[in-house]
Amino acid sequence: MSLLLSMEDCASDEENYCSDRDSLDGIENEEPEFQCAPPKGSTTKVITKESLLAAQREDLRNVMEMLSLREHHARTLLIHYRWDVERLVAVLVEKGKACLFAEAGVTVVEHQDLDSSLHSIVMCDICMEGVPGGEATRVDCGHCFCNNCWTEHFMVKINEGQSRRIRCMAHKCNSICDEAVVRNLVSKRHPDMAEKFDRFLLESYIEDNKRVKWCPSAPHCGNAIRIEDDEFCEVECSCGLQFCFSCLSEAHSPCSCVMWQLWVKKCRDESETVNWITAHTQPCPKCHKPVEKNGGCNLVSCICGQAFCWLCGGATGRDHTWSSITGHSCGRFKVEGEKKSERAKRDHYRYIHYYNRYRAHTDSFKQESKLKETIQERVSITEERDSRLRDFSWVNNGLYRLFRSRRVLSYSYPFAFYMFGDELFKDEMTKEESEIKQHLFEDQQQQLEANVEKLSKILEEPFDQYSEDKVMEIRMQVINLSVITDTLCHKLYECIENDLLGSLQFGNHNIAPYKSKGIERASELTACWKSNNRDNYLPSDREASESDRPSGSGCSDESGCSSRKRARKDGVGGGLFDLNMPAEVIDRN
């Protein structure tokens, strides 16, 4: 395939290039020193420890405003629906508010507070003892038990890891207890456990949210990544780690997550060693150790002293001639044993074929990564000369296009190993269909490979020693090949997504889409204060006094921060606030 590109097209494509920071993370997380600024309107956000509270309260405020709920009710709904606001709204529209609340265990019932009967005796149905009204707590569902029973119940649930959804103790009551009640009672006896409870509630935004996942860096950087689009994508954390958001392993597109996990396991375990042993050795009939034949005679001796026939594996004596073994006759070969040995040989050679090419492009990437410093030196030398050449961005753009293409080529071989093998798609395609699709894929792969090698060779040219005309010629070649490799990468992905994976009926294999500018670097989520008049949607919160809060009728104030996709209903008031301060201090301020 030939691609004809005009100089104007090349120049326009050169302007659109951005420095890429791709690397083959599976082998070595090497990162180019050149970095590009995060793209405007990034769809992925980095959630740090400082911005986690703001990120959580953003969704909380949306639900509170939409349903006129207090914070703990909104949190209960969001935890139940795994912080998926769109799903929550869909259930609300489809089934109504009553069903929405019932499924999540949210109970909004007006009940009489215990303040009016503080000196009366309340019978606890758990311990069956009468306690003063001031030592009992009534929750939203209306059930009332003594504080000691509530505290023991909360502590057990927190220790069991169920602190995000602690249900009422009453029989067959599915109502979720108010977090303020839990915090107030537990903190009196075990302040450390109350802090643990608050941490679990805060981290539920990440643990239970399908749009948010922890960065898998080791040691852990403490960041989480939130996406807005398809979960089958590759992202880059602010710590520099690039990974697949779906399976949290290294970025491996165009391999699907299932293919990559199988490939990693195949490369790590001893399965291929076992295949080689099966294909090239015979087990000793006495000690059962594998024996390799190093001569032409079919009478083999094990180190244990046992002699046996190489053809059938049967134990024999040591007397033999060139044509036969004394007292032994193999008769016929065992067809099944022969087929098994041949199959093991074929599978082993096939694996070695794909692995060697996967490793070759990985090693090429490592060697080409050393070009960064060399190219910087050459650019510096050329700029010092009195020359009309001032712009050398084409060198960096070509270098990062080389990195990006090497990455695609490297991971395309594990993809081909499973796509055209018998392990995953044996029942999806006939042998003829598989061969046709394999030829189509390999044609695309070879074209990309050839142009990547050309680009690599040209970038290694010592252009600082050439004349200006020669440098201009190299510049146009680099720009042309950069555009060609980018186009071929797009075509390879189209072939994979439409002609190969798109035609599958039973398998569900998704890959991260190809992006010319490389893996998107997540931008930090900004923590900001959003002013709202809470009386507009929470009239009862202002009326709740401090004494009401243990009984579940109180609620703390909330703050949030709007992201790119969330429309603000109010203006931004106030300034930045310190999220390291306790929530109660922020609320009072």
How would you sum up this structure, described in words?
With 589 residues, the protein is of the alpha+beta class. Among the domains are: 50-108 and 122-206, Zinc/RING finger domain, C3HC4 (zinc finger) (Herpes Virus-1); 257-283 and 341-500, Four Helix Bundle (Hemerythrin (Met), subunit A). Helices cover 45% and strands 8% of the residues. It is built from 17 helices and 16 strands. It has helices spanning 7-16, 52-67, 71-80, 85-95, 97-104, 147-159, 179-189, 191-207, 257-268, 271-280, 335-369, 371-384, 393-419, 431-459, 468-500, 539-543, 583-588, and strands at residues 44-47, 121-123, 130-132, 136-138, 144-146, 212-214, 224-227, 234-236, 242-244, 282-283, 290-291, 299-301, 307-309, 315-316, 520-521, 523-524. The protein has a 4-stranded mixed β-sheet with strand order 6-7-1-16. A 3-stranded mixed β-sheet has the order 9-8-15, with no helix packed on it. Strand 8 (234-236) and strand 9 form a beta hairpin. Helix 10 (271-280) packs across helix 11 and helix 11 runs antiparallel to helix 13 (393-419). The model is unreliable at 1-40 and 529-589 (pLDDT under 50).
